[in-house]
Fold this protein.
Amino acid sequence: MSFSQDLLTRAQPTMDAIMVHPFLKAIAEGNVPDDVLNYYVEQDEHYLKDYLTITALAVTQTDNHEDIAKLLDVAQFIGNESKAHEVMLGITGHQVENWRRGPETLLYVNHMYESAYRGTYADTLAALLPCAWSYEVMGRELVAAGANNEQNPLKEWIELYAPNDDSKSYTIWRFEALDREVAKLTPQQQEHVAQTFLLSLEMEWRFWEAAWVQEKWQFNI
């Protein structure tokens, strides 16, 4: 069993929990409360800016030409995710106001920055990977369940993340790159990479949860 295959086995319980989260169920039914959508978009705007920065850091950590080309393509896709936000804001009529980063958003991006600055290239890949992987799983399963029906106002949002031949190849590349990089590491370092991935995946669940419960800081500053 490869490193990534074992990692996905370990990650499955968390992914299962994401798929049954009330936010995801509401997306499938097309009835997410407006304040939840607004919170999600505001926080995701912050998150994606940091994700883009960390993707750029990953480019500086490798001399593999294919990886560099793929990472640059990833950066371009991140720019396209504004379409997903437009779908949600079109439902609520909300305008992005650059709210303060929420507690879970800050915790998540700090985890990714620490992985990129203090870890190996494999750690950076592992920190970034759960976002892309979990959204692909989510898109595929929601489409398979028929959630992208014409009555669902989030149909376009769901289909943006549903895998096609191109996006599928990118997921394969991400895990292949991770397998290649961890082969250079000691068992202890490999386990650190695994923990980096699993923590990012838990932070994905927490990101959904934070929007659903409207998590706020205790004090205004």
Notes: The two ends are 50 Å apart (CA to CA). The mean pLDDT is 94. The longest helix spans residues 34-60.
